[in-house]
């Protein structure tokens, strides 16, 4: 999601509420403990139950010119874990501005980097046994005269609520979209009441 402007230690970005973007969804839930359900934004009036779910990206591959154009920090450069040259975008872009504005200190970022470097591979979310995708044994089921095999799939969901805000993150362990294996998908969620027109 492209940053439109940065002003007075605030980041302004357009959030599409009535068009499907793949990265932004409007969902509804009655309480923090429920799983949010997508809502038809053109048919349902917004209420206090509505919130924004944003699948936030971490960075952008510099060879992807269309996505790179969405970053306000196109001149930044680092080598990603996959060996590709990347620029700051979305999560890393926001952190850059938060450090510049003193919202997050450089020491906090360095401490976080040290913490992450000391995590063993078996401790990664996608390596933990208790966070595996569960699949039930298929059972035969006939529907409208057609025989199917039915099974259930359960994806682990982790939710972290920030102390004084109605902002939280969700991490869902899912299959990788373009490769073999699983990966944690990060979503930033915040109340629709936090939006400004």
TrEMBL record:
Keywords: Endonuclease, Hydrolase, Nuclease
E.C. number: 3.1.-.-
Sequence ranges assigned to domain Restriction endonuclease type II Pab1 in this UniProt record: 134-196
Protein name stated in the entry: Restriction endonuclease
The keyword Ligase is annotated on this UniProt entry: no
InterPro entries: Restrct_endonuc_II_Pab1
Molecular function, one GO term: hydrolase activity
Main EC class the enzyme belongs to: hydrolase
């Amino acid at each position: 999601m492209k940053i439109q402007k940065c002003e007075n230690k605030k980041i302004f970005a357009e959030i599409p509420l009535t068009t499907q973007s793949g990265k932004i969804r409007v969902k509804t839930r009655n309480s923090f403990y429920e799983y949010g359900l997508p809502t038809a934004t053109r048919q349902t009036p917004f209420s206090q139950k509505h919130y924004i779910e944003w699948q936030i990206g971490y960075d952008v591959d510099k060879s992807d010119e269309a996505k790179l154009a969405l970053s306000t920090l196109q001149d930044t450069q680092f080598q990603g874990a996959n060996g590709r040259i990347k620029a700051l975008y979305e999560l890393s872009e926001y952190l850059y501005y938060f450090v510049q504005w003193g919202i997050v200190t450089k020491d906090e970022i360095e401490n976080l980097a040290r913490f992450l470097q000391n995590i063993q591979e078996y401790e990664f979310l996608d390596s933990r046994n208790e966070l595996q995708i569960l699949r039930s044994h298929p059972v035969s089921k006939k529907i409208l005269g057609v025989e199917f095999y039915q099974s259930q799939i359960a994806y682990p969901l982790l939710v972290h609520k920030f102390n004084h805000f109605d902002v939280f993150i969700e991490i869902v362990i899912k299959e990788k979209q373009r490769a073999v294996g699983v990966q944690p998908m990060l979503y930033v969620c915040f109340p629709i009441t936090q939006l400004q027109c």
